[in-house]
Amino acid sequence: MKNLTEVLRSVEQSVQVVEDTELRKIAFQELLRESLIENRSSQIPYRDKKVDSSNERKGKRRPSPPGRSGSDGSARTEVARLDLSPDEPALVRWDSLTLDWKKFCWILEAARLNGVDGLTNSEIGDLIGRVFRESFEPKVVSNLKDKIKAGFVKSSSIQEDGKTYAVWKILRAGITEVTRASGGTESK
Fold first, then answer.
1. Which of 49, 80, 107, 127 has the least C-beta neighbours within 10 A?
2. Per CATH, which fold does 77-178 belong to?
3. In the chain, where the domains are located
4. pTM of the full predicted structure?
5. Nearest Cα to 101, choosing from 158, 63, 55, 150?
């Protein structure tokens, strides 16, 4: 496959056997991503605007490159330096978290344990992408607002390098949900 048209045609043909439309979309995106990576040396760009636009319509997206936060490319230095591990010792296993908001709390607590208290929507999504290769749009992460009244998180703002950032900070109830000592339970 030498050009993007051939890649797209081949991937479209490959996914026709999948009957469920949502699964077909996911299969298409994954096969296309893999095909583009394989053909990277053939001058096919990894990030084509047409490919990205289909992902932007969904809540989930391809992770930004490490160190980037938000669409303007600005990253807070302390967040860019974070080196989180999937096996953070004090936290429950990632694969036990079936609810998105708990994943966001896990990242907030992991960052807090590593000296960063408060993350923006983009930073949460970028860290999940970096550590777990899952991705979330900032607008999906903003659904954390539904957990404010229950005392899991709070919205705050911080100043750094003359810029103000709207961040989420994890609270005691959120910490309890994602730490091993509490056993972290799955509930809505």
1. 49
2. Arc Repressor Mutant, subunit A (1.10.10)
3. 4-56, 77-178
4. 0.59
5. 150
